[in-house]
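Title: Prediction job returns without error message
Component: structure pipeline
Severity: low
Priority: P3
Assignee: unassigned

Description:
Job completed but the reporter wants confirmation the result is attached to the right record. Sequence as submitted:
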Amino acid sequence: MRLGSSTRVVRQPSGMGGKLIFCGGCSSCGILISTYHMYSADGASERSPMFRITRLVAGQMLPCLLLMAWGWGFGQLPAFFSSRARVGLLILAVIGAIAAAILHLELHPLRRGNASLAKQRVELAVLWVLSLALLWFLPFADRRGVLTLSSDAWRYAGLLFCSIGVAVRLLAIRALGVQFSAYVTLQSNHRLIREGIYRYVRHPLYLSLLLIPAGIALVFSSSLALPIFIVSVVFVVDRIRREDHLLAAHFGDEFEDYRRQTPNLLPIIF
């Protein structure tokens, strides 16, 4: 959702803007998982890029990588690196984490608003559990040849999808600033964000949600890529419907004008 200000001032983390999307970075088993930000009593504390990188890697990305290593099998890890696509996925994860740190992206996913969040919390909890399960199962199945595709070309297609998805996600979160949140809700001081990547698509974070989970499945040569993509489409369509309804009710003609001029997910096409 494109609500709130995209300013970089972090003194009022209660604000929210731009696209309200499911998760800070993971995108349902995506690459970058959202981090929580530590706020001092009088505002956001400044952290060096190195501190941010360390926190991203140690606190968020490392557990996911360990989960994949567990699924693959710790005793068989050398075989994991036999695939360039799998190695590329690891490199992409590191690059994405470093980029998020250097760009000082605001990755706090749980900023609240004035809407009821009970149902949304359940939805996000379910997606979180499914994401963790897939992060374990996909490498597990890949090493053992369970539900795998026959051609390695799919692995590189998946890596391409992940790369595009991560780039889109980083651009979207950068445009949103401190307004980024996982919930479909409204907060005070909203502004309709139409800058950056939001000039071209209304829901870039949802586009990344379609690309990254299915892309990861393809990197592990899994035939579950299509079911994962279908589930992602169902989720995204429902979220877009709810967000657009909320935005139209709040912003009125301003949003309707923006909706007429800007496609949902793909420039020019849709």
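Comment from assignee: result matches the submitted record. The first strand starts at residue 39 and ends at 40.
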